[in-house]
Amino acid sequence: MQYALIIHEQPEEMAKRTSPEHAPAYWDAWMAYSQAVSDAGVMRGGAGLETPDKATTVTLAPGGHEVHDGPFADSKEQLGGFFLIEVDSLDDALAWAAKLPSPGGKIEVRPLLPPRSEPGSEG
Amino acid sequence: MEAVERAARESYGKLVALVGRASSDLHAAEDAVSDALAKALETWPRTGVPEHPDAWLLTAARRRLIDDARRGQRRQTLDEADVVDALPAVGPIPDERLALLFACAHPAIDPAARTPLVLRCVLGVELERIASIFLVSPAALKKRLTRAKAKIRDARIRLETPEGEQLGPRLDTVLAAIYAALTAGVDAVEKNADGAAGRLAEEAIWLARITADLLPNEPEPRGLLALGLYCESRATARIDAEGAFVPLEEQNRDQWDTAMIEQAEAALREASAARRPGRFQIEAAIQSARIARLRNGENNWHSIVGFYDVLLGLAPSIGAAVGRAAAIAESGDLDQAWRQLQQLERDAGNRLPSFQPYWAVRGELLRRRGELTAAEQALTKAAALAADPAVRRYLSAKAARIAADER
Question: Whole-prediction pTM value?
Answer without folding.
Answer: 0.84
